[in-house]
Write a structure and sequence with these properties.
The protein has 480 residues and is an alpha/beta fold. The protein is built from 17 helices and 14 strands. Helices cover 41% and strands 13% of the residues. It has a six-stranded parallel β-sheet, with helices on both faces. A six-stranded parallel β-sheet has the order 11-10-9-12-13-14, with helices on both faces. A two-stranded parallel sheet has the order 7-8. It is elongated. The protein starts with a strand and ends in a 16-residue tail after the last strand. Belongs to the UDP-glucose/GDP-mannose dehydrogenase family.
């Protein structure tokens, strides 16, 4: 029986291995992690991450050919194929601080693999890593090999949170990069054979190591670029009276462009986009490509601008101060159908409002109070370190109140900010909400999910990103 071990039981490792176990019943799959709490959660009825369809897949396989364990060395030693899906946070100090990926966890994983291995292994990069990481890992393993042969493959993930299980069941492509040697090609075929249990062969793309590593960074950079492009247009739409939804629809009808990732919003979030672009910027700078680095930096600058612009709209609309005012925050996750808050725009928006001394009442159907408090008290990039290295007891923000539903959040509020496009927010009784808010009552829609005209008829003053401005807002600056 082929044995697979995945080091890292996070958003990538857990779902990916669960689907491999489901689709390959003859393969034994072990997911290992040093976090006891995380492994206990994977073995319980309350999984550590929320992802539609994930619970069903895990329950079908767990205890049969899918195992979650803290016995890292045991399972690594026994495995034929080892996926490494550990954190690669952005460095906060030293060379490349603020841009380069910190490969500390990757390096320690590689050294541990070398220490405990007793037979030849295929080691697969699953984390998003900078180009040439495979080469570095290869050097560590070969210099500590004790006669054992290792083949390094790059198999980047292209999962979208909220649709990860469907993405795994029916991927656009599976990318496998390896060495162009007989041993490297044999390793590629071994991994290809795993995916071929359910992925059509024409969707499994085989490349060299560097192409596979760079393709992941490039894909995320291109997607983030589209979001920043439409968000830049949203600012121009507000200034001119155009409607960004109509503009995006017209642009997306061009078959060369297409309609996806053209929704204007308060900004992009998630664990990959910003981190991967910063990584790309660093690689460009290291290779003397200053103009290319500056090009990609601008994608992040526009994203930061969009979040700042949103906060400025809130404050300037409400008589230029939110001090002491209750602001309802509907949605904290970075997008719907996930409980993930990594790099969510809500963090920067909330911090901006707290900076003006607002009182926040926050509701999200999938994010816990502890997570929200932690996110609002953590330093930038701390979220990407393993849980045991994050602040254990966050500083409780006295101006932040986390509540159990949208109506409680908005009761007595001066304004509400819609920051995640949860489906339930589309069916809220806004007349009931209006009646229970302070007047004038403001709605700041950061996801373009509300019916602007309907809300204005109720009596709200509405700001919706990229839409023609409410008369109230016409003479108010978008940027301080």
């Amino acid at each position: 029986m082929v044995k697979i071990c995945c080091i890292g039981a996070g958003y990538v490792g857990g779902p990916t291995m669960a689907v491999i176990a489901l689709k390959c019943p003859a393969i034994e799959v072990a997911v290992v992690d040093i976090s006891v709490a995380r492994i206990m959660a994977w073995n319980s009825d309350q999984l550590p991450i929320y992802e539609p369809g994930l619970e069903d897949v895990v329950k079908q396989c767990r205890g049969k050919n899918l195992f979650f364990s803290t016995e890292v060395e045991k399972h690594v030693s026994e495995a034929d194929i080892i996926f490494v899906s550990v954190n690669t946070p952005t460095k906060t100090r030293g060379l490349g601080a603020g841009k380069a990926a910190d490969l500390t966890y990757w390096e320690s994983a590689a050294r541990m693999i070398a220490d405990v291995s007793k037979n030849d292994k295929i080691v697969v990069e699953k984390s998003t890593v900078p180009v040439k990481t495979a080469e570095a890992i290869e050097k560590i393993l070969t210099h500590n090999s004790k006669g054992i042969k290792y083949q390094i493959l790059s198999n980047p993930e292209f999962l979208a949170e909220g649709t990860a299980i469907q993405d795994l069941f029916n991927p656009d492509r599976v990318l496998i990069g390896g060495r162009d040697t007989p041993e490297g090609q044999k390793a590629i075929q071994a991994l290809k054979k795993v995916y071929a249990h359910w992925v059509p062969e024409d969707r499994i793309i085989c490349t060299n190591l560097w192409s596979a590593e760079l393709s992941k960074l490039a894909a995320n950079a291109f997607l983030a670029q589209r979001i920043s492009s439409v968000n830049a247009m949203s600012a121009l739409c507000e200034a001119t009276g155009a409607d960004v939804t109509q503009v995006a629809h017209a642009v997306g009808k061009d078959t060369r462009i297409g309609p996806k990732f053209l929704n204007a919003s308060v900004g992009f979030g998630g664990s990959c986009f910003q981190k991967d672009i910063l990584n790309l910027v660093y690689i460009c700078e290291c290779n003397g490509l200053k103009e290319v680095a500056n090009y990609w930096k601008q994608v992040i600058k526009v994203n930061d601008y969009q979040k700042n612009r949103f906060v400025n709209r809130v404050v300037s609309s409400m008589f230029n101060t939110v001090s002491g005012k209750k602001i309802a925050i509907l949605g904290f996750a970075f997008k719907k159908d996930t409980g993930d808050t990594r790099e969510t725009p809500a963090i920067d928006v909330c911090k901006g409002l707290l900076g003006d001394n607002a009182h926040l009442s926050i509701y999200d159907p999938q994010v816990t109070e502890d997570q929200i408090q932690k996110d609002l008290s953590m330093k930038k990039f701390d979220w990407d370190n393993p849980i045991h290295l994050q602040p254990m007891s966050p500083t409780v923000m006295k101006q932040v109140n986390v509540v159990w539903d949208a109506y409680e959040a908005t009761k007595g509020a001066h304004g509400l900010c819609l920051l995640t496009e949860w489906d339930e927010f589309k069916t809220l009784d806004f007349k009931k909400i209006y009646d229970n808010m302070q007047k004038p009552a403001f709605v700041f829609d950061g996801r373009n999910t509300v019916d602007v005209q309907k809300l204005r008829q109720i009596g709200f003053i509405v700001y919706s990103i990229g839409k023609p401005l409410d008369g109230w807002l016409n003479d108010m600056p978008a940027v301080a």
